[in-house]
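Collaborator request, handled under Task 6.
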Amino acid sequence: MKRTVGVKWGNLKTGIILIAAIAVMLWASLSGGGTSIFERKGQFVCFFKNVNGLVRGSPVWMSGVEVGNVRSVSFVNLDSLRQVKVVGRVKKSVWPMLTEDAEAMLGTIGLIGDKYLEVIPGTKGKPVINNMGVILTREVGDAATMFKAGQDAIDQVRSASDNIDALLARVNNGEGTLGQLATNDQLYHNLTKLATRLTKLAADLQKNQERVVSCLEKTTTSVERLSEQVNSNTGTIGKLVNDPQLYDNLAATSARLDTIMHRINTSEGSLGLLVSDTALYVEMTNLLARINNLVTDIEKNPRKYFKFSVF
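Structure tokens returned to the collaborator:
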């Protein structure tokens, strides 16, 4: 006689819930993080000098979105720049973005967190790489390098601060030009005197400037008055400028003088003969000589020429 085993509904419901929870957890583990083991993926290769702790299974991001993971990390030592070979895989849906100018670089989640591989998409329209094709890499500084650079900067700042402290100490002690400027008040007094003198000089220059301006104004006024007189035909200058009679008289006089000079040059008239004929000059010279002789003889023998009689 067969025995029947009774299963309570409560136990059955509990089993169904456990199976569903396990299925959900399995699905989440297989499809979480933006990728699934059932989705087709393509693989690419990139080389780094130092991966800084990147391991197999690390996520692959593209524009901040997880699109795959790292398939393998191996040390190859091909040259100084290609020390480590990294094989990554991404979903086929984003594979067209891996063109020949696409790049890969290492990233860190947080400052010192886990590493991931960042893929920078290439230019749209360029040829897409083949499966297991090599893409370029871009080296970025790791945390240790940044810390070292920061420490170097701090050391430089500390050195500069020490130099500034030493300089300020010398200034406070009155050493050098800056020290004298900071501690010696002689320069202050000299500058004060110089400022006073410059102020006085500026005032004198202002007065002289006012005098010059006044003289220029007077000159301008005189010129304006003279111009008014000339324009109104007043005064000698006005007559000279506006009255043509003086010009006509000067022109006529000039013409007469020119005629006289022409007659003199051509030996016309008495004046022309006096200028050009030497005979009159000779006669006058002889006459003067005779007169001189006559006067001399009269002075010597006055009785010869003058007779006096009382009766």
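The cover message to the collaborator said: "Residues 105 and 138 are 5 Å apart (CA to CA). The longest helix spans residues 186-231. Please let us know whether this matches your experimental observations."
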